[in-house]
Automatic annotation (TrEMBL):
Subcellular location: Membrane
Full protein name: Amino acid permease/ SLC12A domain-containing protein
PROSITE patterns xrefs: AMINO_ACID_PERMEASE_1
Residue ranges crossing the lipid bilayer per the database entry: 42-60, 72-98, 123-145, 152-172, 178-199, 266-287, 307-332, 367-388, 394-412
Keywords, alphabetical: Amino-acid transport, Membrane, Transmembrane, Transmembrane helix, Transport
Naturally occurring in which organism (per UniProt): Basidiobolus ranarum
Gene3D superfamilies given in the database record: Amino acid/polyamine transporter I
Amino acid permease/ SLC12A domain boundaries: 41-426
Length: 439
């Protein structure tokens, strides 16, 4: 049985345990999870983790707040940050492909206490994110059925998410593949049609289309650096979810090849989906358009995507985008249930959570961890007691903060991983060679 090199902590110099290349698991029971996720699943999971309400809804608010130029700068900066974050995660995931990786990486390379805290933080982040998506779905459904109880829609979507995750990991992979594919096609069609619209329309007396929108009044930078900083926070939340590829490493059929391939796509999909979409929206809708100010989950009719499609003469645009955003919420919640369940399962196997949660079904699903995650996600049902929009904002803020903490944990774990790699006596391998682990 082959083993990789030992890695030691750069401070204590104590030798850590071997990493088994055959099982690719660490301190976990062999054969519990099934390696059924293929390359196409991981690629779409990575893409689907980026496309969400941050693009379909929050992009309008971003342009209104910072102007088209400020929004582009903010999303580009966050995109670069996420790219480096993902390459850092890719190195560790390719070297040590295990489920629920963040907890284990922090425990091995920094401190067990940080691993404990980071693992529970990441589980809580995704459990709350599922509640965010369920609360948002109940708000959006009011567009069609305003008098229907909101908790019914949250419960229905939660049952669907649990169903996809309870069948098998392949069932989750397939569902996320098709969800992400629909979102990708929507953005690609939007970009193509938007370019054609800009090139063929000269604009009306009160509205011009094209680069002139970037020099209209205070554009391209509204509120200067302050506007960019405000949008930077929005963009950061929009990109949260890209790191879920690291969670899938333990159930990937060929992690050493598939994980790096998915990671390397991060930069290009950010460039295409966010930068190009915001550029087109900025050229078609001026930053002071009132519809951009109201672009949030409670007003899908004023989504910048909806507005652009309406300008193109597509009458059912509001209903179409409402359905696509609903699909986006289902996809994000589906991934959230998966990530939270696997993270909790790893915590239980490492003795950092009740042992009951490490039980796995015959088809490789940690059902107890799944059930506990779903229980916490039921926080969304408070929308039937309080204001649906208020609950959504509460959960959204909690999800955003915990997500940024997870990113910080990845960064510090990778820093110590590099230090430990050199301390093991591998100083003859420069960073450029180590980067070959990610392609």
């Amino acid at each position: 049985m082959a083993h990789r090199n030992h890695i030691v902590s750069p401070d204590t110099k104590h030798e850590t345990e071997f990493i088994d290349e055959k099982t690719q698991d660490l301190n976990l029971e062999d054969g519990d999870l099934k390696r059924h996720l293929k390359s196409r699943h991981l690629s779409m999971i990575a893409i689907g983790g980026t496309i969400g309400t941050g693009l379909f809804l929050a992009s309008g608010t971003s342009i209104h707040t910072a102007g088209p130029g400020g929004a582009l700068v903010a999303y580009a900066l966050v995109g670069v940050m996420v790219f480096f974050l993902m390459t850092s995660l890719g190195e560790m995931a390719a070297y040590m492909p295990i489920s629920g990786s963040f907890n284990t990486y922090a425990s091995r390379f920094v401190d067990p206490a940080l691993g404990f805290a980071l693992g529970w933080n990441y589980w809580f982040s995704w459990a709350i994110t599922v509640a965010v998506e369920l609360a948002a779905a109940s708000v959006i459904m009011k567009f069609w059925l305003p008098s229907f109880p909101s908790w019914v829609w949250s419960l229905l979507l939660l049952i669907i998410m649990i169903g996809f995750n309870a069948l098998s990991v392949k069932g989750y992979g397939e569902s996320e593949y098709w969800f992400a594919l629909i979102k990708v096609l929507t953005v690609v069609v939007f970009i193509i049609v938007g370019i054609v619209f800009i090139c063929t329309r000269k604009g009306e007396e009160t509205q011009m289309y094209g680069p002139s929108n970037f020099t209209f009044q205070e554009a391209p930078f509204v509120d200067g650096a302050l506007g960019v900083v405000q949008v930077f926070l929005i963009a950061g939340f929009s990109f949260q979810g890209t790191e879920i590829v690291g969670v899938t490493a333990g159930e990937s059929a060929n992690p050493e090849k598939d994980i790096p391939r998915a990671v390397k796509q991060v930069f290009w999909r950010i460039l295409l989906f966010y930068i190009c979409a915001i550029l087109i929206i900025g050229m078609i809708i001026r930053y002071d358009d009132p519809s951009l100010l109201d672009s949030d989950v409670s007003s899908i009719a004023t989504s910048p995507f909806t507005t652009v499609f309406k300008l193109m003469g597509f009458a059912p645009a509001t209903h179409l985008m409402n359905a696509i955003v609903m699909l986006t919420l289902l996809s994000a919640g589906n991934s959230g249930v998966y990530a939270a369940t696997r993270t909790l399962w790893v915590l239980a196997n490492e003795g950092k959570a009740p042992a009951l949660l490490k039980r796995v079904s015959r088809n490789g699903i940690p059902l107890w961890a799944l059930g506990f995650t779903a229980l916490i996600s039921c926080l969304s049902f408070t929308t039937s007691i309080f204001s649906a929009n208020a609950v959504y904002q509460w959960l959204l803020n909690a999800s955003g903060i915990t997500g940024f903490i997870a990113w910080f944990g990845i960064a510090i774990s990778h820093y110590r991983f590099r230090k430990a790699f050199l301390a093991q006596g591998n100083s003859d391998m420069p960073a450029s060679q180590l980067n070959q682990l990610i392609g």
